[in-house]
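Supplementary Note 2. Why include the ligand at all?

Several targets in our set were suspected to adopt different conformations when bound, so apo predictions alone were not considered sufficient. For every target with a known small-molecule partner we therefore ran a joint prediction. The input for uridine-5'-diphosphate is given below.
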Amino acid sequence: ASATQALAHNLNASERTHFVLVPMMAQGHTIPMTDMAYLLAKHGAQVSFITTPLNASRITGFIDHAVAKGLAIQFVKLRFPAVEFGLPEGCENVDMIKSRDLFKNFMDACAALREPLVAYLSQQRQSPSCIISDMMHWWTGDIAREFGIPRLTFNGFCGFAYLARYIIVRDNLLEQVEDENELISFPGFPTLLELAKAKCPGSLSVPGLDQIRKNMNEEEMRSSGVIINSFQELEALYIDSFEQITGKKVWTVGPMCLCNQDSNTMAARGNKASMDEAQCLQWLDSMNPGSVIFVSFGSLACTAPQQLVELGLGLESSNKPFIWVIKAGDKFPEVEEWLADGFEERVKDRGLIIRGWAPQVMILWHKSIGGFMTHGGWNSTLEAICAGVPMITWPHFAEQFVNERLVVDVLKTGVEVGVKAVTQWGYEQKEATVTRDAVETAVSKLMDEGGAEEMRMRAKEFGVKARKALEEGGSSYISINLLIHEMGNPGKCI
Ligand code: UDP
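The joint prediction is reproduced in token form.
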């Protein structure tokens, strides 16, 4: 065991820095927070992980693992007041919200967790050392002040997108532009960045959310620092620039997905996989190394049915083996019908379709995977970077268009499929704007022999650097230890 782990086991509870982690209940936010809990505990801290019954049931694989390993993580299940706030019983995750009109209700229900959380923390023998909460949980700022402890924010963005978002908010960039297609530039951004208004984070208008956004931004400015799930060797220019411009202390502690490479936990990351993992591995084993394109758009993206059909036809004409994760089945029966009406039969020798939750990290890590067509959520992007897999970017909304610029222009480990229109969360989209030809072209650019050699090499190099960052003595490893030290009682922590 490493020196840190050995020391961690020798600390008793009162000596450990105690972090309270309050994740947003959305997969892209909760999953990295479970990794954070694991990392902090492995480095000798104590963690209270705040969750709700339904969300806890999704991460039972992780909970069992933490218990088996004897990690100092307490899972605190607070009752989520869904019904009181006009949500259906059991609606405890953003991916269960049926209409964007209910998003404010969901946010209000989250804020109502304040009292039970205070009650829980008050019952503990010692006050915690620090709250790390999602940026969206603005109401945790008050709790930190009540207990006289720091609050650090986390929102799952990379440094590049964090900086872009900060400049948008600081300069009110979106309000100055009427036309959704007008290009916005980012004063003070260290490299050239221009994006249409509609493609900027924060451009989604959600009923009743203005005040909540204001609270979030104000509380973020009052926070004692920011945790970023990235690593210095990937994007130091933007992380340092964010630190300088905001004057906030930044801890870069990623890629957190590398924290735990136990195959069972990896396969059940975020939720129980909807397909048998052994079967999935068997399929992957039967393919040539680097030959398969993996297609998945995260947990929230709602791709239009027509668009899914075009995507499928593009994959078909690419003639490459693929794994395609589709979550539309329950929402769009027409897609299910189309799949059954010949498509699945035609591609059965080289196409694997996963309906529902896929064991994404397990798949990305497999040697048969040669490319990842992704919506560009930061977790997915970082997972691909760790696996050394180049990408085809297909952004839908939020900061995904910003991430696309990082991957394509800066890291140069991906090609874009060429998305023109935004597919906003919670809006019905009817049309396909990316054609099957565009899909085929992007796949062949990335996967054809000799086509993307340089990109592939760069992706592999970043994968190596990513692993080094979290190894003993690596930049993120050191940053985690410093975080624990600074937030704990000086002299008692690692
Ligand atoms: N994920 C997964 N299986 C799925 C869909 C998503 O394991 O079928 C995981 C993925 O590995 C990532 C997270 O869910 O860790 C999604 O986060 P991301 O930031 O990529 O996108 P979001 O879902 O927030 O749009």
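The longest strand covers residues 46-51. Confidence is low (pLDDT under 50) at residues 490-494. Comparable summaries for the other entries are listed in the accompanying table.
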